[in-house]
Amino acid sequence: MAEDLRGSALIFDLDGTLVDTVEDLSASMNHVLAAAGLAPVPTGEVRHLVGHGARRMLMRGFLLSAGREAQEGELDDAMTRFLDFYGENIAVHSRPFDHVIEMTEGFLARGARAAICTNKREAMARRLIETLGVAPLFDAIVGADTAEAAKPDPAPVRLCLQEIGAARAAFIGDSDTDIRAAGAAGLPCFVADFGYGPVTLADRAAVFSSYREAAPLIEAALKG
Ligand SMILES: O=C(O)COP(=O)(O)O
Ligand SMILES: [Mg+2]
């Protein structure tokens, strides 16, 4: 069995797919809102704001809290404050989802490679996985600011494939953004139903509830 997955790759979305980050994202956003004299947004609502990058999350959080659009200057200040705070508090609560690391190690032991394709900034994504001690598993990390466009554009997915040189790959995500990006890059997409969504395009993906359930499905797609 040793190298039967050589030439294939797992490409993971990060927030809501590989790592459960919402508590730390929420604490960081609420730190920014508090500094602006605004009420916090509950974590249960923040999870629906993740997946399009920090600026979009702050824009929507500001609207929910203040009931009005943030102005450009306010958003620039909010981004600076957010990135400072989040960078320092990136893995207070954030942890990989159950069994995803074991699954990935199992695929790597059989010759596959793994990459991360996220709408987080690349530096933040690197900091997160380094802090969690899982960086050595990933041969490429592509963020929203790495390729010429962010997901749902397929460019970051293609860049991952190019960087790791895989002939076959499966994309694992948690939202329509991932389903669109993977589809446009010609990859099969697996979607975690415990992620942050939204998922309205489930007919274009294979939805799973745990990595134990997903592993054989992903393996079959890589071998098929
Ligand atoms: O919105 C973000 O910051 C990143 O989200 P993603 O890792 O799910 O692409
Ligand atoms: Mg996600």
From TrEMBL:
Which InterPro entries does the record cross-reference, listed alphabetically? HAD-like_hydrolase_sf, HAD-like_sf, HAD-SF_hydro_IA, HAD_2, HAD_sf, PGP-like_dom2
Pathway(s) annotated for this protein in UniProt: Organic acid metabolism; glycolate biosynthesis; glycolate from 2-phosphoglycolate: step 1/1
- Please list the GO biological process terms of this entry: DNA repair
One Pfam family name from the record?
HAD_2
* Catalytic reactions of this protein: 2-phosphoglycolate + H2O = glycolate + phosphate
Enzyme Commission code(s) on record? 3.1.3.18
**What Gene Ontology cellular component terms go with this record?**
cytosol
Q: Could you name the domain of life of the organism this protein comes from?
A: Bacteria
Q: Which family does it belong to?
A: Belongs to the HAD-like hydrolase superfamily. CbbY/CbbZ/Gph/YieH family.
Question: What NCBIfam families is this protein classified in?
Answer: HAD-SF-IA-v1
Q: Give the protein's recorded name.
A: phosphoglycolate phosphatase
User: Which organism encodes this protein?
Assistant: Hyphococcus luteus
